[in-house]
Every structure is written in C-alpha cells, then in structure tokens.
Amino acid sequence: MSSSETAQPDIAPSKLDRSVIVTGLVIVAGLIMVVLDTTIVNVALDSLSSELDSSLSNTQWVVTGYLLAVALVIPITGWAMDRFGSKATWITALTCFVIGSALCSFAWSIESLIVFRILQGLGGGMLMPAGQAMIAQAAGPKRMGRAMAIIGVPMLLGPVFGPVIGGFLVEYTSWHWIFLVNVPVGIVAVALAWWKLDSGDQHDDAGRLDWLGLVLLSGGLASLLYGLSEAGSEGGFGETSVLAWLIGGCVVLALYVWHSLVRGSDSIIDVRLLTNRLFASSSFAVFLVAIGLFGGMLLPLYYQTARGEGALTAGLLLATQGLGAIVAMGIAGRLTDKIGAGKVVPVGVLLALIGTFPFTQIAADSSYVWLSIALFVRGIGLGSVMMPTISSAYQDLAHDKVNRAAPTLSAIQQVGASLGSAVLVTALTQHFTGLLGDHGINAAGGTDQLGSLPPEAMQVAGPLLADSFGFAFWVAFGLTAIIIPALLLPRRGVDHADGQTAMTPVH
C-alpha cells in the first residue's frame, strides 16, 4: 500500500482512554464464553458419548461440526461489518451463539447436538475477527499493543480455565450444563454490547456480496480444517482420505487467490492486503506462532492419560500457565507500543522455549510442582507473543481495510492452530504406537488408542506414554523456535514515532 492510501494523522493519546477500555471489556465479555466453550466441550466428549449412546468417532463431530461452521463464516465477517455495521454484526453473532448454546443443552440425540453445534459455530466464528477489528479501530496504531492485550485475555486464559470449568461440570453436574452455562453469560454480553458499543460505521460502499469468492474461500478453509482434524484423529497424514481433503482445500484456496487478484477490492477478502510488508510478515508470524504454541493442548492429555488424573484436577494443574499469561500481557502490550513487537516477540518466544523444555524431559512421575513452575514461565512467553504479533498486523493498515484484514488473520490463526494440533497429535500417537509395538502390544493409530488400552497394560504402557509425550514436546519445541518472521516485525514503538501513522481511531 502506498502512503497516500494509508497515511492519516493520528493524535491519539498514548494511554488507553475510557472508550477503548469499555469497548475492549464488552468484546471480552462475548469472547470469553466462546473460547471457554471449545475447551469445555473437549473435556466432556467421553461423557457425551456415553450419555447419548454414541461412538467416540461420531461424538467427535460435535467438535468437527463446530470447527467447519467457524470456517464457513470467518470470510463473510468483514463484508457484514462493512455492510451492516460493527455493532449489528457483533450482536447478531452473539445472539446466534447463545441460541445455539441453549438448543445444545436440550439436544435429545448426538445428531441433534451436532446440528445445534453447527448453529453455535456460525455465531462463534464471527466473534473473534469482529472483536479484533473493533478494538483495532477504537484504539488506533499508537495504542494497539495495549488494546490487543485486553482481548488476549480470553484467548490465552480460555484453554487454561476451560478444562477446570469443564471438569467441574462433568464431574458434579449433567452434560447439559456445559452448554447451558453460556446462556446467562451470553445474555449479559448482548446487553452490554447493545448498551455500550457505538453503532460504528455502516459503509454504503460495501458492495454486493462476492458469492463465488465466499464459496471458494469458505469451502477451501472448511476442507483444509477438516483434513487437519482427520489427520489428528487418524494419527497421521498418510491416509488417502486425509490427503484428499488437504489437497482439495489447498487447490480451492489457490483458486480463490486467483479469483481475488482478478476481482480486486470487490472480492470477499482482498489478497492484495498481503502486499503490505508489515501485514504479510505479521500474518506469517501469527501462523507460525499458532502452530508452535499449540503444544499446550497436549498437557490435559498427559495429566489424564499418563498420570490418571480427573478432568478437574488436570484443569487445575494448568492454571499456572494462565497466571503467567496474566502477568505478561499488560507488560508486553505497553512494551510493544514503546519499542515495537520485533523486540518483544523474540523474547517471548525464548521464554516459551524455556517453559516448554522441561516437558521434553517429562516422565511418568515428574514433579507437579516443577511442571507448574515451567507452565508459569511458558505462560509468560505466550502472553508476550500472540497479541503483540497480532497487533503489529494492524499497525500499518488504513482504517477502511481493518474489517477485511481481521477475518484474514483469524483464518490464518485457525489453520495454524489446527495444523499444530494435527502435527503434535500425530507425533505423539505414532511414537507411542511404535513403542507399544516394540513391547509386543498392538494398538490402533489415532487418539482413540490413548484411552483404549486395558488397565493391565498400563503398567508397561504408562512410562512409554510419558516418553511419547516428551517426544511430542520436542516437536513443539522445534516449532516454537521458528521465529524468523518475528525479526521482520516493527522494531520501533509508535508512542514516539515520527511522521504519520495509518489509522485514525474511532470512538
């Protein structure tokens, strides 16, 4: 983008004013239940399978169906915000999520639950890109790091406290409450949004919806995410069905790139945004960060399978990671605005590596205290990486480009997280299967094998499983170490930057 396209004077104060803080808190009220919901449902899959008399593979569609619905609606979010306004889009998405949650709590079969989860995903998938766009527009570039730290709260704490809440609900209530708990929170979030959010800009020039682009982009994302989900559950990328979905998704996404280049700014998401060097490097960094830092999803599995802990205890053991993230996010946000994400993110990655290394040495009797300390350090690293990386992506964009940029980042982040999950689960299950074979124990591939071993085999399998977790964390360690794009992020803060900046804040 040329400076004439993006440069506008920004006289925003260096501190967050009340309107930005209020906007951020309203967005957090909506996002927290969405991020928590995903991890809560993952904890409850076994209970759902038994209560609804369904196989675990069928029950997995409760997660997969939601994921595919998210992929379908992410691309349309920017156009909807341009056409109908940020406030209307946000409230509509929240309402859809709350209605879907209420219907899920009354599901009478696994099939009905999957259908209602898809409805829930259609609402939930729009909330993250819409929330990022609104906070970016409200804050302006000079306060982007601190503002993004606000919405980083649910992103980083949800995977930590979700298992705690999910474990409590599964152990002490019925499965219906894992969905019903969203309803009162959602009603409050809708009321706060109606009361506190400005109507925002409604652009008459949003144009007609790019239906062909929407079909190509949504279809390609859905195919790619489904293939990655299947790779994780099947324990590898070698299955023909997995490869077919992955290749098909990549081909369709390539067709969309061609379509967008031809259609230009009228496409659902303009891929020419990636000609902005800062946005492109930040997007690539977000992708790699999502891959590498998704190793935390293995921890609940380790505590529950290798150590035999319940869902609630496993969730509580993860809490120190959330505490570390809380400590880091505010500090990292201020430092990002002062000295630039390019100096903050590499330090955060280094801390994440230090916190991840003890898990590469994990055993069947590793000290919980030692692991909790490592998780605290890892949390500091996580809190210093994700949101500064995302905030840098918006720093150099014109105000009218933000709504279309946010879905791009959300899609990239979703694909990165799914790819990281698939790679790590594949590393874990294939290594474990190989060790079992060496000891004369046969086991099927995929995640189902972790819970399919008979109790009498666990005396032999327990240490082997711990070894396999250590191997998987070595993979996570290697993925986290890839920080080359972080070196391309801004290495100078915007608080005292000379010249002009890209966005004018909207209050």
Can you walk through the features of this model?
The structure is a single chain. This protein has 507 residues and is mainly α. The protein has a single domain, classed as MFS general substrate transporter like domains (Growth Hormone, Chain: A). It contains 22 helices and no strands. Helix 9 (144-172) crosses helix 20 (386-394) and helix 17 (319-339) runs antiparallel to helix 18. The radius of gyration is 22 Å and the shape is globular. It starts with a helix and ends in a 27-residue tail after the last helix.
Indicate the structural class. Answer: mainly alpha
Distance between the termini: 25 Å
- How many β-strands, per DSSP? 0
- What is the share of helical residues? over 70%
Strand content: under 5%
What is the CATH topology classification name?
Answer: Growth Hormone, Chain: A
Gyration radius, in Å: 22 Å
CATH architecture: Up-down Bundle
Name the shape in a single word: globular
What is the count of helical runs?
A: 22
Low-confidence stretches: 1-13, 496-507
What is the CATH domain class?
A: Mainly Alpha
Mean pLDDT: 79
**What is the CATH homology-level superfamily?**
MFS general substrate transporter like domains
Summarize the main sheet.
Answer: none
Number of domains: 1
